[in-house]
Amino acid sequence: MAKRTKREDIVEETKVTDHVLVPKHEIIGEDEKKQVLTQFNATEEQFPFLFSTDPVVREIGAKPGDMIRITRVSDTAGETTYYRFVVEAV
Fold first, then answer.
1. How far is CA 26 from CA 8, 11, 19, in A?
2. Phi-psi group of 79: left, alpha or beta (phi > 0 → left; psi -120 to 50 → alpha; rest → beta)
3. In whole angstroms, what is the distance from residue 34 CA to residue 43 CA?
4. Using 50, 70 and 90 to split pLDDT, how confident is the model at 2?
5. Looking at domain 27-87, which CATH architecture does it have?
6. What does the pLDDT look like over 7-61, one tens digit per residue?
7. Which of 39, 36, 16 shows the shortest CA–CA distance to 27?
8. For residue 72, what are the β-bridge partners?
9. What's the whole-model pTM score?
10. Residue 79 parent element (H or E)
11. What residue spans define the domains of the chain?
12. CA atoms lying within 13 Å on the CB side of residue 40
């Protein structure tokens, strides 16, 4: 087995979602996904997308076809919710 460097250990331990500027990302279930699509009268392809290679997508274990709920908190806007559709990276 190859010897690991200190840098490799640090990179492996670092979580993108722990950073203060990264909002909360959650994979939503199929039922909620259908509700969101109905609420916005849209198809999956009409939502903004995230590539499956996105660091947060990989960290939370999302796969192409999943829908992600992103919750952002700010002093001026309060709490806002966004939805993104995960697609295969090209």
1. 27, 23, 16
2. beta
3. 10
4. low
5. Alpha-Beta Complex (3.90)
6. 656 556 678 888 888 999 999 999 999 999 999 999 999 999 999 999 999 999 9
7. 36
8. 80
9. 0.80
10. strand 78-87
11. 27-87
12. 15
